[in-house]
Specification:
Elements lengths: L1 H54 L1 H8 L2 H31 L5 H12 L1 H13 L1 H5 L6 H8 L6 H22 L1 H4 L4 H47 L5 H10 L5 E14 L1 H5 L4 H21 L3 E5 L3 E6 L8 H20 L7 E17 L4 E6 L1 H16 L3 E4 H7 L7 E6 L8 E5 L2
Parallel strand pairs: 4-6
Antiparallel strand pairs: 1-3, 1-4, 2-3, 4-5, 6-8, 7-8
Helix pairs in contact: 1-2, 1-3, 1-10, 3-5, 4-8, 5-8, 7-8, 7-10, 8-10, 10-11, 13-14
Length: 435
């Protein structure tokens, strides 16, 4: 019990590590988007100021009291852009290394970025006066940082950004606007505006947190699916895994016509008695690897391994109009491949193959707690009985009459063995042998 619990804990720990790693990468990607947006915004503002200077130089004199004030703004924008470029390189570095940025660096970065409008506002107050500067466009710049803070996907960082913007704007108003300091109604205007900025920060944080939860849910689902594919795909084919993931927890199945193939190694148990368990596993794995590769090429899938054999399907879970042709082609190639392998080993293996074509119920079937994608029906039972008849006839590849009919001219080399008795069936059935 302790061993099982420890294995389960390790699986959860591994999945949690995968989840955290992917979530960190997603957050860093959105951080890169935010930084790029800020760099572009800084460049656009610089271009806009240049256009104003070229189009109406008198406006520069009115707003910044000459080019010196404008040069200071350019200097601030240049420093801001260079800072964001540095932040961008740091995020990309961490993204490559698969590690997160320290939280303290994020808060310091938010403080530096959000203080840019405050510094510009102070320069504007020096050239325009407090009342005009506070009523000008610069206080609106705070909203750019608040809105883009949503891409941090962190409620508290966005709230912190809104708080810094609101507190700095209100502090500047109290210190530099005489009417506000004297308690005139103007102070209520600044208080309300700062409160709105703070509320916007909280709302941006809520939106970011919501996006983070959605990212987390998507990543958790993708991580779980990848682990199911990796682990479960070692036991059944990837196609079955895809079918199971698409079906979810729905029960039942659908009726379809498929070619069912049973493969079994003849005399394997006797040969295994004189060899070590590792030798047995290695020989079996080597043979299975070749046969399964053939199935993949022909569009078949291994539904389940049955000791020293397996059940393969053609036409489920992925439909195939030529399922019988594919199954027979795979069977023929398997015989050729085994002859080639046997010529290179001291432990030759002989296989028996039985193929039947008919209707089955295919789907995710089982108990509410554990389901398995499989096929059920007389077609499956008969294919199994057909494979067992190889012992009686000394053959390796037997097909049913329905397979022979589906093959048409491609089955012209099929040798009829007549009507034979099959265990579990009252009436004799036609059986054909392929070389």
């Amino acid at each position: 019990m302790v061993s099982f619990a420890s294995r389960k804990a390790r699986r959860h720990a591994a999945m949690s590590e995968d989840f955290e790693r992917e979530l960190t990468r997603e957050v860093l990607r959105t951080e890169l988007m935010r930084v790029r947006a800020l760099i572009i915004t800084g460049c656009v503002i610089a271009v806009f100021l240049t256009a104003i200077y070229l189009a109406d130089s008198s406006a520069v004199e009115r707003v910044w009291r000459g080019t010196r004030g404008l040069a200071e703004i350019y200097g601030l924008l240049t420093g801001f852009i260079l800072f964001e470029v540095w932040v961008h390189t740091q995020i990309r570095k961490n993204l490559r290394l698969g590690r997160d940025l320290p939280a303290i660096r994020r808060y310091i970065g938010a403080l530096i970025e959000t203080s840019l409008p405050t510094v510009i506002l102070l320069l504007q107050i020096r050239t325009m006066g407090a009342s005009q500067a506070l009523g000008f466009t610069v206080p609106l710049f705070y909203f750019i940082f608040v809105i883009l803070s949503t891409l941090r996907l962190d409620f508290w960082l966005s709230t912190f950004t809104g708080f810094v913007a609101a507190a700095e704007l209100f502090a500047v108003a109290l210190i530099f606007d005489p009417e506000s300091s004297a308690g005139e109604p103007q102070i209520y205007f600044h208080a309300v505006r700062s409160t709105i900025i703070l509320i916007c920060g909280v709302l941006a944080g809520a939106v970011g947190a919501r996006l983070r939860r959605q990212f987390a849910a998507s990543i958790a689902a993708a991580t779980a699916r990848d682990r199911v594919t990796d682990l479960f795909g070692q036991h059944v084919s990837p196609q079955v895994v895809d079918r199971l993931m698409a079906a979810g927890t729905s029960a039942g199945g659908d009726v379809r016509r498929v070619a069912v193939m049973f493969v079994d190694f003849r005399g394997f148990t006797a040969g295994a008695q004189s060899r070590t368990p590792q030798e047995v596993v290695d020989r079996l794995d080597g043979a299975f690897a070749v046969l399964v590769d053939i199935l993949d090429r022909e569009g078949g899938i291994v539904n389940k391994f049955l000791g020293d054999g397996f059940l393969a399907l053609f036409g489920a879970p992925l439909e195939a109009s030529d399922a019988a042709h594919r199954a027979v082609a795979a069977g023929r190639e398997m015989l050729t491949a085994m002859d080639r392998i046997n010529a290179q080993t001291s432990w030759p293996l002989r296989i028996g193959i039985g193929i039947h074509f008919g209707e089955v119920v295919a789907g995710n079937i089982g108990s509410p707690r554990r389901k398995e994608y499989t096929v059920i029906g007389d077609t499956v039972n008969f294919a199994s009985r057909l494979e067992a008849l190889n012992k009686e006839f000394g053959s390796q590849l037997l097909i049913s009459a329905s397979v022979r009919e589906a093959l048409g001219d491609d089955g012209s080399d099929a040798v009829p063995l007549g009507e034979v008795e099959v265990r579990g069936y009252e009436q004799k059935v036609a059986v054909f042998q392929l070389g």
